Amino acid sequence: MSANPSARPPIAAAPLAGQEPVQNPALDWPVLQRLVRQRRSIRRYTDQPIDRGLLEELLDAATWAPSAHNRQPWRFCVVTGAAAKAQLSAAMGARWRADLSADGADPAEIERRVAVSHARITGAAALVIAGVSLEGMDSYPDAARNQAEWTMAVQSVALACQNLLLAAHAAGLGACWMCAPLFVPELVQTVLALPPTWQPQALITLGYPAETKTKERAPLSSRVIWR
Ligand SMILES: Cc1cc2nc3c(=O)[nH]c(=O)nc-3n(C[C@H](O)[C@H](O)[C@H](O)COP(=O)(O)O)c2cc1C
């Protein structure tokens, strides 16, 4: 299925019936533990394209995330064409350059940061723009509950993205969440001709890894309290 015979096989060799009860989830725990601990944000990729079937498997994994009321408010736009990637990156880069200039940042540093971002985006085999849509969500007469509903929708999208990141790692791909679309949602909507109800939340770069990374985590005791 993969374009490269030496690449790892797709995640699901056989179609999975989503409704199958798990017989013994504990058997899968060491595998899951490795998966969640070993996934890293990978920002440099080889030139190898990603098979469309594999991309579809990753997106399928994304959609098995939990979501508020099971309304599945995630929306995904997959960008694999070089011209589209370059156009999106250039448009976002121009806006970022303007914002950083207005902040008074050093011009050389601005160019360096924009160039790094451009290389990352155009160097990825595929981009997944994750958006949120409120179409299926509840609406209320008051702002507080609408805000909660919006937050639930955004949280649901983030969970889908985490599924996608883990699935990418399991498939031998590197991936990185980029927050840039959050700062220029209308621009992303326009460049990619997204439906107006899709509100861009994140850009996930994907590709076969050309780097390895390590990261640490703060001790549990610094983030957890027990009562
Ligand atoms: C909401 C969110 C926004 C992020 N935005 C960016 C980004 O714009 N650029 C980037 O290089 N990494 C971004 N990251 C990746 C984080 O830098 C990365 O997850 C963090 O440093 C921990 O590293 P790890 O993913 O390898 O564990 C983002 C991650 C999250 C969850």
Total tally of structural domains: 1
CATH architecture grouping: 3-Layer(aba) Sandwich
Q: Which small compounds were modeled alongside the protein?
A: flavin mononucleotide
Number of helices: 7
According to CATH, the homologous superfamily is NADH Oxidase
* Derived structural class: alpha+beta
Mean pLDDT rating: 93
Question: Strand share of the residues?
Answer: 5-15%
Uncertain segments: 1-8
Distance between the termini: 50 Å
Please state the overall shape, judged from the principal axes of the Cα atoms.
globular
Q: For the report, how would you describe the main beta sheet?
A: 4 strands, antiparallel
Strand order across the largest sheet: 1-2-4-3
Number of strands: 4
Q: Could you state the order of secondary-structure elements as H and E?
A: HHEHHEHEHHE
Return the CATH topology.
NADH Oxidase
Structure description:
With 227 residues, the protein is α+β, with helices and mostly antiparallel strands. The protein has one domain (42-211): NADH Oxidase, CATH 3.40.109. It has helices at residues 29-38, 52-62, 82-102, 107-123, 143-170, 180-183, 185-191, and strands spanning 74-79, 126-132, 174-178, 199-207. The chain has a 4-stranded antiparallel beta sheet with strand order 1-2-4-3, with helices on both faces. Helix 2 (52-62) crosses helix 5 and helix 3 runs antiparallel to helix 4. It is globular, with a radius of gyration of 19 Å. Bound molecules: flavin mononucleotide. Flavin mononucleotide is lined by residues 40-41, 43, 176-180, 213, 215. Flavin mononucleotide (FMN) binds at residues 40-41, 43, 176-180, 213, 215.
